[in-house]
Amino acid sequence: MKTVRNILAILVIALTMSCETHYRMITTLERNGQVHREIYAFENSPSMEEHSNSFLFYLSPDWNITRFNTIINHNFFGKERKFNVKISKDATSIEQYSQDVQYDNDKQSFAAPEESVSKKFGWFYTNYSFKAVYKKLKYEVPVPIANYLNKEEQILWTQGDMNNYKAFNGSEMSDYLNEISDKFFEWCSINYFEISLECIKKLTTGYDFDTDKENIYQEIRKAKIEDMDINPETVCKILDFFYKTKYFSELNKANGEILENDFETAISIINHVGNVISYELVIPKNLLKTNAPIIHYDTLIWKVDGMRLLFDDYSLLAEYRVANIWAFILSSLILIVAVGSLLWRKIKWR
Q: Does residue 45 contact residue 52 with C-beta atoms inside 8 Å?
């Protein structure tokens, strides 16, 4: 059953990804503090004016748009993605991008991360700290994830943070992830059920769902209805069985579109799971430390998607340093003058 469940989950996510946004964002930090950003996407329509579904925000006139005559194929985390349009923009600071961008409220988590670059001056080197925080997706569900997974388990499952599990070997990790998987999909199931029942409740009178809810859910478990198949239609069938009636099937037949629309609206968060961003940061020099999972020469690469933002913020971190050439030159001149002065005094005293 677990295999079927995971396949269903992958299929649902794949379907949402097929109609959601995938883009490659390259941010180049210059030594002088200037920042250059390029975003590659796939444009479905032949024209793109102020706003396009190809991007997660509204395009202002200061973005330069380049359309390619041929499609660019790019290895996008192991899968080939096609891009045919690029937008680019220069800024005096990385904060300017999120401050200037406009977006629909439901896309804020992806469109406007909190980005910053701070610096700490040293004589020979200046240290820089980069940080970008993608905020947790905004949504409400009847049953919180904390009822099933603790904070460490949530971060492990959605963001792959292994810091608390370094002592595990492969077998132990596999068993532990299977336990988390069961609890995660149980959380999905109970929320799909609660949401479905609430949609049905709006159109129903004379039934005490609140008192019977736990027993009704147990009937769904007994019927072995897969997590992704729990919806108002299947819940209506279970309600018919539980209350020995045909009332709910008839209710669904007469109001199926209303129930489906209410249900889809309530679980609309899944529409954002398919948003995937390849965040690529090009730094000037000398990386000190980072949490980027992929490092390619001077480019740090993170994968940002809805799954990673499901339970918590996702932070991209990097520290690097840039040599102060003038400090080396000035120090060398001071050293030369000092040595020269000593030699001159020594010769003079002779």
A: yes
The token pair that represents 72 in the structure block: 């660019």
Quote the pLDDT of residue 53: 55
Closest to 160 measured CA to CA, from 303, 16, 17: 303
Strand partners, 74: 81
97 Cβ neighbours under 8 A, 6+ residues apart: 35, 37, 89, 91, 115
CA-to-CA dists, residue 333 to 66, 206, 323, angstroms: 48, 91, 17
HEC assignment per residue over 228-261: HHCCHHHHHHHHHHHHCCCHHHHHHHHHHHHHHH
Q: What does the pLDDT look like over 309-335, one tens digit per residue? A: 999 999 999 999 886 665 557 666 766
Tell me the CA distances in angstroms from 188 to 2, 16, 67, 142, 150, one per residue in order. Answer: 14, 16, 41, 11, 15
Q: State pLDDT tens for residues 244-267.
A: 999 999 999 999 999 999 999 998
